[in-house]
Fold this protein.
Amino acid sequence: MEKSENTLAAELLEEDKDGSNTQKSTEGFTANFKYLIIGVLFGIVFVKAEIVSWFRIQEMFRFDSFHMYGVIGSAVIVGLISVQLIKRLNIKTTSGEEIVIPDKTFSKGQIYGGLLFGVGWAITGACPGPLFAQIGAGYLGVIITLLSAIAGTWTYGLLRPKLPH
Amino acid sequence: MDVLEIIRKPWPWFIAGPLIGLTVPALLLLGNKSFGISSSLRHICAAVIPANISFFKYDWKKGIWNLFFVTGIIIGGFIAGIYLANPDEIVVADATQQTLRGLGLTDFSGLMPKEIFSAANILSLKGLIFLVLGGFLVGFGTRYAGGCTSGHSITGLATLQWPSLVATMCFMIGGLICTHWILPFLFTLVL
């Protein structure tokens, strides 16, 4: 029974390809520190480019500034070129594995969930990444936002079987 | 002008955007990880309060890299917020400032409006709406959509996944509806 439920859960996880880990060989605990370092650099960029600012998000949704469109647009272009290079030149990971990026599957969740997240994004002025950076930068009230976001994720998990997908 | 002085100034989009874009290949090359931050919230649920919900019954340790990554973001935010902080005030676009003044905001000095987000407001209606309700929608919505700005709008678009384009368009539509119709109402409640 436990086993079949685990398989089901694994399938559910496969459905949600966000932040996937397709590494085959196991990594030791200390290997994780390289992701921490990438996170540190990323957090610095987030704060220094003021992406974590509620005001910048308002400018974006009011079409009063190009800043956020420039950030996201150039990030996508650089990401796109990098991924194309990795694929065409068949570049492997540092441990020699083939790079695997799982395809996202469409569900109505991307529409309903997307709209709900959009509303939350405009209210809080933050998507999940900036929440962490804001807390680090000293906006401690945002700890409440983060806890509430965790509660929101949990509630989604609870209601998932009843929601349209 | 020394280097530190330059770093302390706000970074333009054409520096920040490409650096964020490079996170995608960096995580892939270091260990086949797809950039997507909101899944860290799911791993936290799975690790701390799975409560027998099937959505949280999986090997969350496979996602532990993401928890290290977001811990790094907190540290990076701290370093940038304390040691590399911009000595000048944030410059908010005039048009946005005018509209927000019209809605009742007066303080444009920090990264976030203190009138709403200061920790002193946690237990007020402001905190309930902007922190608790807003945060809940971010967590519920991103998981329902299967990703957030990083997972869909950056990784998804950069790997040409059309469901991510649908999600990104819905993020924008939700944000536009909220900014132009819901926020003005919320501001009348709290300011």
